[in-house]
């Protein structure tokens, strides 16, 4: 069932999604009517003037909160403009790909053929993106990613209609590699799921880490049992461990790593998906001592980020994750392009020129598109700390990388 959002009318407490909605996917059906609540405003907006945005994302499975947060951040940007982006009325149509490439592909076909959508966002996982993005680009549609950014679309496979608002997969992990290198770890074990983003994670980490990788371990996607991996780490006795497991898998890994007694003797390094507000809330004090990197954190002092955090808390009654910030940033970038083109998306070259200007203030602050239309921005160390009140929070530390792009940009010829 599609969720269609055409206005920014505030939702009541009973209409807002529950923070734990990903454990009960059927509740997403309650949101399907949210965009129809303010029928008076809907009737005031000519249907022909609305730009439809197809939002294909992961709302179910243990990783469903990633897509929920990206969707909610995107919707917040629309709400702030009372149903518009860049002054242009928009209709956001959301469907759950269930972390299944075939399902994502089917939704994309429906959006293209039946709904006549030409502007897309929402994809979270690289394996779904691999199935969906080629079809969108073949139809001359525009895609702006709020998360998924596999290497095969960043280099020679780049495309003029393909933009990434988050980071390129490898660069997400290169920041952690740079941090691990600066901390002096000589021997490390690296772990990631066995799919494109997992392979990009290992490769990205190694571009900045110059020590010895004594073993690379690939796990099943969405796995939550790491007993065998814990035993192997104990046997190898590395100086530190790097692991990338988003969503529920990341929660399980940190808990089991701590319970196995490994965190006390072998430092654990993770990228942004391994330590964000949802994971912190789920693992509690097991997160203390974990070393992370991120391009955004909830304590950023720039005005856009502070307003976003306040707005997200007020609307959804929970802390925003970087996925929410990425969804918000993607919407703001799209809004800037729609404003420049007068809401026209059929002229893809005009839309592209407007997108590349990145004429929008974003939550992360410093941002521009590289030549492959992926971000160039900064990365920071992030850690979990306990305040004087006993509450845990994520605190931003030193800047790890400045104006960092990705290793594939030079291969992109556009």
Order of helices and strands: EHHEHEEHEHEEHEHEHEHEHEHHHEEE
Figure out the total of helices. Answer: 13
Shape: globular
What fraction, in percent, of the residue positions are helical?
25-40%
User: What Rg, in angstroms, do the CA atoms define?
Assistant: 20 Å
Largest β sheet strand count, sense and barrel closure: 8 strands, mixed
Given as residue ranges, the uncertain stretches (5+ residues, pLDDT < 50) are 7-48
> What's the pLDDT, averaged over the residues?
90
Number of strands: 15
Structural class: alpha/beta
Give the SSE map.
Blueprint: E1 3-5, H1 28-31, H2 39-44, E2 51-57, H3 64-80, E3 84-85, E4 88-96, H4 101-113, E5 119-121, H5 126-138, E6 142-145, E7 162-164, H6 169-182, E8 187-193, H7 196-208, E9 212-219, H8 227-236, E10 240-243, H9 248-259, E11 268-270, H10 277-283, E12 291-294, H11 303-316, H12 322-341, H13 348-356, E13 368-369, E14 375-386, E15 392-404
Parallel strand pairs: 2-4, 2-5, 5-6, 6-7, 8-9, 8-10, 10-11, 11-12
Antiparallel strand pairs: 1-4, 3-4, 12-14, 13-14, 14-15
Helix pairs in contact: 3-12, 4-5, 6-7, 9-10, 12-13
Summary tags:
single chain, about 425 residues, 13 helices, 15 strands
Descriptive account of the structure:
It is a single chain. About 10% of the residues have low confidence. By secondary structure, the chain is an alpha/beta fold. The longest helix has 20 residues. The strands form 2 sheets. Strands 8, 9, 10, 11, 12, 13, 14 and 15 form an 8-stranded mixed beta sheet that branches. Strands 1, 2, 3, 4, 5, 6 and 7 form a 7-stranded mixed beta sheet that branches. 37% of the residues lie in helices and 20% in strands.
């Amino acid at each position: 069932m599609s969720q269609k959002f055409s206005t920014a009318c505030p939702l009541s407490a009973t209409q807002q999604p529950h923070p734990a909605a990903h454990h009960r996917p059927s509740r997403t059906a309650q949101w399907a009517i949210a965009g129809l609540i303010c029928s008076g405003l809907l009737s005031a907006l000519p249907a022909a003037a609305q730009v439809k945005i197809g939002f294909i994302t992961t709302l179910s499975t243990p990783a469903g909160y990633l897509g929920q947060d990206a969707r909610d951040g995107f919707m917040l940007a629309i709400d702030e403009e009372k149903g518009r982006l860049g002054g242009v009325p928009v209709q956001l149509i959301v469907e759950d790909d269930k972390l299944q490439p075939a399902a994502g592909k089917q939704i994309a076909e429906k959006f293209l053929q039946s709904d006549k959508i030409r502007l897309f966002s929402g994809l979270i996982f690289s394996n779904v993106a691999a199935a969906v993005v080629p079809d969108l680009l073949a139809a001359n549609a525009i895609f702006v990613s709020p998360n998924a950014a596999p290497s095969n679309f960043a280099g020679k496979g780049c495309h003029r209609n393909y933009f990434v608002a988050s980071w390129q997969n490898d660069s997400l992990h290169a920041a952690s590699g740079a941090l691990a290198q600066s901390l002096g770890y000589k021997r490390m074990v690296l772990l990631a799921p066995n799919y494109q983003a997992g392979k990009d994670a290992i490769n990205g980490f190694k571009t900045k880490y110059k020590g010895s990788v004594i073993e690379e371990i690939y796990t099943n996607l969405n796995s939550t049992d790491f007993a065998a991996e814990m035993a192997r780490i104990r046997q190898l006795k590395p100086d530190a461990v790097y692991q990338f497991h988003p969503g529920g898998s990341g929660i399980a890994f940190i808990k089991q790593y701590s319970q196995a007694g490994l965190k006390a003797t072998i430092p654990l390094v993770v990228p942004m998906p391994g330590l964000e507000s949802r994971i912190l809330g789920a693992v509690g004090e097991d997160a203390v001592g974990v070393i992370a990197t991120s391009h955004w954190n909830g304590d950023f002092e720039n005005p856009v980020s502070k307003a976003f955090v306040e707005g997200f808390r007020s609307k959804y009654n929970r802390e925003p994750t970087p996925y929410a910030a990425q969804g918000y940033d993607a919407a703001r970038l799209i809004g800037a392009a729609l404003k420049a083109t007068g809401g026209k998306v059929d002229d893809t070259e005009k839309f592209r020129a407007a997108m590349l200007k990145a004429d929008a203030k974003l939550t992360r602050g410093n941002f521009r598109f590289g030549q492959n239309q992926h971000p160039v921005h900064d990365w920071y160390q992030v850690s979990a700390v306990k305040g004087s009140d006993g509450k845990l929070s994520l605190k931003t530390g030193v800047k790890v990388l400045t104006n960092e792009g990705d290793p594939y940009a030079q291969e992109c010829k556009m």
